[in-house]
Known about the structure:
By secondary structure, this protein is mainly alpha-helical. The protein has 2 domains: 1-48, Arc Repressor Mutant, subunit A; 60-197, Tetracycline Repressor, domain 2 (Orthogonal Bundle). Helices cover 73% and strands 0% of the residues. The protein has helices at 3-23, 29-36, 40-46, 50-74, 78-95, 97-104, 111-127, 137-154, 161-173, 188-197. The longest helix is centred in the first third of the chain and has 25 residues, at 50-74. It is elongated, with a radius of gyration of 19 Å.
Amino acid sequence: MRKDAVQNRERLLRAARRLFADHGLDVPLEEIARSAEVSIGTLYNRFPTRGALVEAVFEDRRATVAELAEQALAMDDAWDGFVAFLTGVCELQAADLGYNDLAARGAAVDGDRGYGLMREILERAQRSGDLRDDITLADLAFVLWGVAATVKATYAVAPGAWRRHLALALDGLRAVAARPLPTPPMSTEQTRAAMRTC
Length: 198
């Protein structure tokens, strides 16, 4: 790209990062272009869809989630790794309303690699006997959705309230707290359909 095109792209990404972080993913694209001091046409030339812009803005966050997963798997204690991973993802959500929206839509993890690492974290904690054996990745989606809703509702009035929500959820995921669940877990297809409605 020409130098001015590269500069415009970077200005758009900076503006989008800031506005998404402060207001969530539904910020009007016109507002992002205005904040970057470029035309809406320039925005569409660089990012033909909102999805393309979101993908570019949050590429680094998805890489961070993969790093958090690898760090969790490197921890000696499987439960501590499980807790550290979920806490790390939730901290990213709490720091950025745009990423929080992304997590609520089930797009906070980088494709097959990210889900593979999450599955490994989950299964490792189950093998250790700390995590209830009936928990699935779909159930973890509920945890992240719930925290996302808490972050959104309390962001301005009690920014740390999500930590209490997560602690309560984690206590319910412990094997020692397990009671029979009233319904089976959602299928992968059901989970994906539910994520599309967020």
